[in-house]
Amino acid sequence: MEDGRSADVVVVGAGFAGLAAAHELAGAGARVAVAEARDRVGGRVLTRLLPDGTQLDLGGQWVGPSQHEMRELIARYRVPTYPTPEHGRAVVDYEGTLVDALPPEAMALRGELDRLSREVPADAPWTHPRARSWDGTTLASWLAGRTGDPAVARAVGRQTAGGLLSLDAADASLLETLFYLAGGGGLDVLVGFAGGAQAERLVGGPQELAIRMAAALPAGTIRLGAPVRRIEHGPGGAVVHAGGLRLEAAHVIVAIPPVLAGRIEYDPPLPPQRDGLTQRMASGYALKTHAVYQEPFWRARGLSGISFSSAGVLTETVDNTPPGGPSAVLTSFAYGADAHLLRARTPRDRRRAVLDRLGELFGDEARDPVAYVEFDWCAEPWTRGCFSGHLAPGGWTGFGPALRAPAGVLHWAGTETATRWNGYFDGAVQSGRRAAAEILTGAPDGAGGHVPPLPDRSDPGRSGGGPGGSP
Ligand SMILES: Cc1cc2nc3c(=O)[nH]c(=O)nc-3n(C[C@H](O)[C@H](O)[C@H](O)COP(=O)(O)OP(=O)(O)OC[C@H]3O[C@@H](n4cnc5c(N)ncnc54)[C@H](O)[C@@H]3O)c2cc1C
């Protein structure tokens, strides 16, 4: 690997955000180097094939019809998709009783959240007239103030803060919850299967799309095994230290989860508001597990494999059987404190707890799968959370403006910076494209100034120099 090679832009991270940014820049003629810590591209997507060929998506997996950035990429790279199976009834366990649907009071609260979310400007939630109040209120306390029935509050809290943000309702601000609902088009779309965010999966998994995107970049663009630990920056450009590499560039796009962006050493240090933001944007805490069976036995009982529980160790399950199998898969999700407690158990106890719960929901066959697979994204050094990062209560109003504002020549991408489908693949792609556009067309620098656009490649004065600005 060429040491000291200069690029116009260094992109940190080869998840969907970093790959999308690299494509926009390379397509505009800029020279791009992508520094990726792992030995693979894709970030929070990872597809594993069982010995019989059954596809398990250990990270992100679904795309929905209104996720236009992803749909465009899926079409461009010709990755086939298939509908999420929905044969039969969903199971709703409400406080230990199997019911057809959540009680009307819970549905009314969901409706109220949806209505409020439509008021929130997803590109600047801190500007809403009630932003301070909503940012200082947790979803749990808001729900408790709306209903005298703790079971109703628990159910709505688990479905929204849990199922969407992978947080407990006591850890999610009302403003963050409303922002998230706004970006995805409302609760029904976010929790929905056909027509919603869980409508389809990709043949080969979303990792296949990431691999095809990486392969379409100019040879040598992506440097795998290159963890960025230090960035020196100034008006004249930046020096990125990535493993043994020293990469000089005019601009840098940091396209990694904010919690990890905050662990990079910056010289000079980041503006306080930006640093404060990364301190307040911890990741959610979900645990996703897969139980594999010879047959989708639940379908014979008229069940879809989809479940929601208002109490118990698992909040949600889905039928993750690929079309044509060969094996059947029930995938489970635990969130927040439930996921913490599961992680604290031994692997054997954790497996038992998950399978026993599946047995209660779907019948005794669920207790004895032919395989059980779990993957802990919170333990991954280059992710450290699941599904995505969220601003803690008070975070939007105190630090929100620093989410996307460049710090000089440093630009911020990653799904956590998206204004649509924040937390999803689609948001990651949007964020990468937006950060690339900042560089190509110029942008405010976050300190009252303006970062000029990347000079044309044919410009003889373009060569730039070190961080201090000397050519
Ligand atoms: C279990 C799970 C299920 C999910 N389900 C869905 C779903 O069904 N649908 C959906 O749309 N979304 C889903 N998501 C969310 C989705 O995966 C993410 O929103 C998206 O992949 C984020 O892309 P990104 O590029 O912003 O970040 P990442 O994918 O995290 O990419 C960041 C990249 O940067 C690298 N990196 C980190 N630090 C450094 C460093 N210091 N130096 C160099 N490289 C670094 C990482 O290795 C990684 O490759 C899920 C996520 C998880 C974990």
Shape: globular
What class, by secondary structure content? Answer: alpha/beta
Domains counted in the coordinates: how many? 3
Helix content: 25-40%
Ligand list: flavin-adenine dinucleotide
What's the end-to-end separation, in Å?
24 Å
Strand count, sense and barrel status of the largest sheet are: 8 strands, mixed
The count of β-strands is 22
**Strand proportion:** 15-25%
Q: What is the level 1 CATH name of the largest domain?
A: Alpha Beta
Mean of pLDDT:
94
> Which parts are unreliable, with pLDDT below 50 for 5 consecutive residues or more?
1-5, 458-466
Instruction: Give the count of helical stretches.
Output: 15
CATH topology of the largest domain: FAD/NAD(P)-binding domain
CATH-defined architecture of the largest domain: 3-Layer(bba) Sandwich
- Compute the CA-based radius of gyration: 23 Å
According to CATH, the homologous superfamily of the largest domain is: FAD/NAD(P)-binding domain
Describe the structure in brief.
This protein has 471 residues and is of the alpha/beta class. It has 15 helices and 22 strands.
Describe the structure.
- Keywords: Oxidoreductase.
- Residues 462-471 have a biased composition (Gly residues).
- This protein is an alpha/beta fold and 471 residues long.
- The chain folds into 3 domains: 6-43 and 208-281 and 391-463, FAD/NAD(P)-binding domain; 104-191, Orthogonal Bundle (Guanine Nucleotide Dissociation Inhibitor, domain 1), CATH 1.10.405.10; 284-386, Alpha-Beta Complex (Polyamine Oxidase, Chain A, domain 2).
- Helix content is 32%, strand content 21%.
- Strands 1, 2, 10, 11, 12, 13, 14 and 20 form an 8-stranded mixed beta sheet that branches. A 7-stranded mixed beta sheet has the order 8-7-16-17-18-15-19, with helices on both faces. The chain has a 3-stranded antiparallel beta sheet with strand order 5-9-6.
- Strand 12 (237-242) and strand 13 (245-254) form a beta hairpin.
- The longest helix is centred in the last third of the chain and has 17 residues, at 425-441.
- The two termini are 24 Å apart.
- The structure holds flavin-adenine dinucleotide (FAD).
- Flavin-adenine dinucleotide (FAD) binds at residues 12-18, 35-38, 43-45, 59-62, 227-228, 255-257, 260, 264, 288, 377, 382-383, 386-388, 414-415, 423-425, 428.
